[in-house]
Amino acid sequence: MGKFLWTVVVFFKYKQLINGYEVTAWWRPFDEKSETGTVMLNFLNVETGAEYQYWSLKYNSYDTDKISFAKDFKGHQKGDIHYFDYTTPDTKDPFKEVNGNSPLGYYTPFQFLDIDFDGEDELLISDWYQGQAGNGYEVFKLTEKGLQKLDYMPLDRLSNIDRIDTKNRTITLVLFDGASDEAEFYFSHKKRKDKITVKPEFYSSCANRFDFAKYNKELGAPFALDSIAERVAREREGMIRASYRVEGERIVRCIRGGS
């Protein structure tokens, strides 16, 4: 016999308008009780008529989890329609205390936010993987031709642990490898003019793994790396703390200290 292919399609809709959009979805779970499946999210602006579609072959969210993990759930049935209350980004979550009260919402499946600081909201879709850094995000510009994905740094790797300062227009990426290796990358909103061609050997594995090759290919992007800070625990040296600043094409070590 061939591999069984689950073909049941269900639907869901958000009860509230979100940023002026009516949000509905076509969703095909991977199996009878799966919280994950193929999705098409449809965003319809009820005032302007603007409409956008988001497709994903593998999608789940805080809301689809609530369906599949409900105690009385007996399985998806063809034609099921679910109505969700939208969880707003300002809902209290476990990351607000460590990320400077970031505008990203851990439980929020999608949100509208001016994340590139150009005066217009983008659409952010949460990847509900619930890791140590929270969830990841896809960022889309709303254009006349549909959704345009923004995949330059730092918008290509946002998570709930990152700090987003909308007032000062900065984004700080926080990368860590366990409890003893952490690096922070400070981006400010300005045109990226220089490739980084001279850099030191960093103490942290997180900083050494940073994709400078990708960064250098994105000249003209609206965010530039300003500085880096790292914290690393070593058996013989104890805690090492170091900071760096970006000076044109060079990264210069400013401070190196220990605990």
Summarize the structure.
The chain is mainly β and 259 residues long. The chain contains three helices and 15 strands.
How does CATH name the architecture of the largest domain? Answer: Beta Barrel
- How would a crystallographer describe the biggest sheet? 6 strands, antiparallel
Count the DSSP helices: 3
Going across the biggest sheet, name each strand in turn.
10-11-12-13-14-15
Q: Structural class per helix/strand content?
A: mainly beta
Instruction: Say what the CATH topology of the largest domain is.
Output: Lipocalin
N-to-C order of helices and strands: EEEEHEEEEEEEEHHEEE
- What count of domains describes the coordinates? 2
Query: Helical amount among residues, as a percent range?
Result: under 10%
Strand content: 35-45%
Average predicted confidence as pLDDT? 94
Please mark out the parts with pLDDT under 50 across 5 or more consecutive residues, or reply none. none
- What is the distance, rounded to the nearest whole angstrom, between the alpha carbons of the first and last residues? 64 Å
Report the CATH C-level class of the largest domain: Mainly Beta
- Sum up the overall morphology in one term: globular
